[in-house]
Amino acid sequence: MLRLGIDIGSVTAKLALLEGERVLDARVLRTQGRPAETLRRLLAEALERHGDVAVVVVATGSGKSLVPDPAGRVSEILAHARSAARFHPRVRVVLEIGGQDAKMIWLPGTGEPRILDHALNDLCAAGTGAFLDQQAARLGLDAAELGRLAASSTSPATVAGRCAVFAKTDMIHLQQRGVPTADICAGVCHALVRNVVATLARGREVPAPLLLQGGVALSAGVRAAVPAVLELPPERVELPERPVAMGAVGAALLAGRRGGRTMLSRLLAGVPDEPAVREVP
Question: Is the pLDDT of residue 245 over 90?
Answer without folding.
Answer: yes
